[in-house]
Amino acid sequence: MRMEMYKVGRYLVDSLQIYFPASLEIQEELINNGFYVPRSPDRKVSMPIPIVYSDFGGRVISIERLIPPEWLEISPEQLGWEETYLENKRGFKLPKEEVYVDVSISNDSIIFELDVKNYHLERTSIRGINPEKWKNWVMFYIDLKYVDEFINALREHIPAFENKTRVIREKQQGGKEVTYYAKVNVKNFSLCLGCFDLAQRYLQIKAKEHCNIYPGSPTCNDSLSKLKLRLEYDPSITTFAKVGIAKISGKRPQIMVKLTSTETKTIRGILKPEIKGKARGKLVYCDHREKRQYIALDLFDFYKALVSTKKYEGKLPTDD
Fold first, then answer.
1. Lowest-confidence segment of 14-23, 173-182, 199-208 by average pLDDT
2. Percent of the chain at pLDDT above 70?
3. Which of 22, 73, 194, 302 has the fewest CB atoms in 10 Å of its CB?
4. Helical H runs in the chain?
């Protein structure tokens, strides 16, 4: 049976964050293939899993939060970065980074296809790595001015209903982000670390570094080509999306979509015997050719979440 697709539109994404280090599935895969994540016990190799980050507003960021250019064997100029100082620390001024999301409807799902034109890689400090606390691991934001356009485009695909959706207020980033959201069921998702060229380059360089320092390492045996780096939806894992509106300090009000899971997972660690965190999905092999990154949510739930949270726009804080 052929599925009908209805295109809603293509939208500029204000910011995108994919916290691949929050996936214990990926961390376990790297450890099992000889990588010392987040670093080797003898401190000779540092190996944080990259966060994929894109910000259309540009960004000034200190060096300790970045996968720095030298780790990628690329100059800052090649990346379009300008070296600077932030609170007397080395940092970089990053250019505007473009990401678009193509939104479509298929049966009872709304599909978000991410078209990531520009991005950079970030890292968390060793002390900052606490996957047990990370619930939200994928998030993107779109200008709130499109909310009525979204609602109007979806309305004809939605049956009449009595809206009793529960709206939750949440603060993040030490109060810098205030959101009003509703929970939305996830239909599917597929997101791959290795399909980001900079991440693939980083892994290749780290594999060589491991091999040079530890000649007996599995990384010497082309283990990189066999790695599973794509996370797909697993219906056995409790997963939902937070959909609503957000105000981040210094930014305009936004539509927010966050992928969240809360189920506990434990793996063997490098620096400690066990690492506790959250299960994210099913890890599968990817040849990194198609480079598809998408999330599919329940259409009816998504519509109700937008309609319900839009009413709280006047309660969002301002920068005044």
1. 173-182
2. 96
3. 73
4. 24-32, 76-79, 147-155, 197-213, 299-310
